[in-house]
Amino acid sequence: MPSAYPPLNLVVRTPRLTLAAATDDLLERLVPVVRAGVVVDDEPAPFDDPASLYLDSPAREWQWMRRIWAGRSRVDATFWRLYFVVCDDGEPVGMQDLIGTDFAAIGTVTSFSWLAPAARGRGLGKEARAAILHLAFEGFEAREASSEAFIDNHASNRVSEAVGYTRNGTTWATRHGVAAELQRWRLTRREWTPRRRTDIELSGVEECRPVLGL
After folding, report:
1. 3-state secondary structure of 42
2. Rounded to whole angstroms, how far apart are CA atoms 70 and 179?
3. Can you point out the beta strands (E) in 49-135?
């Protein structure tokens, strides 16, 4: 049964995966992935681990859920963050978020994502980014999308480059309490349009637009 809250009815489908709005049912199905944590070989990790949050289970899962619930509760014309669960053949394997600040006036979005270790290396990150960009540009008529990743997060930076972003300078942030350099990326609507795919399906967009102030 559809939710009475339109953002929870959003779905983006590609031939390879589905981005489904992060309902509580889907979050529960993703808990085992979060409980296992995100394991990397590099030290330090090339990102702040969004799944384990460096807490022991079950505090790890509780903190993760609290952050999503808090984000879902703050959705209006000035700020919104839409959370999606990445489903590979129906199995939740990660998350892909879309964030807008003063979007109705400015028309720019940012994105954030993570995948379970077992789901990496198969092109799902690139496919999920293409899907969320289709929602932004085709569904919400965005003017521009941006992204950023630590310089040594090669997988994320390769995805940005592969889907058409261009480099947009660098900045700094803390990672595990230590300063680290971030690569910024930018993709305009004009740059995205020639790459627009015809095999991505959007559901629930029109009903969601008023909630976002559009």
Report:
1. coil
2. 27
3. 79-88, 91-101, 108-115
pTM above 0.90, yes or no: yes
pLDDT tens-place string over residues 117-157: 899 999 999 999 999 999 999 999 999 999 999 999 999 99
Residue carrying structure tokens 């932004």: 136
Residues 6+ apart with CB under 8 A from 50: 38, 64, 95, 112, 114
Dihedral, CA of residue 166, residue 116, residue 30 and residue 63, to nearest 10: -80
Residue owning tokens 């994320």? 156
Q: Is pLDDT of 9 > 60?
A: yes
Mean pLDDT of the chain: 92
- Domains of the chain listed by start with CATH number: 6-212 (3.40.630.30)
The angle that helices 59-73 and 24-36 make with each other, rounded to 10 degrees, is 140
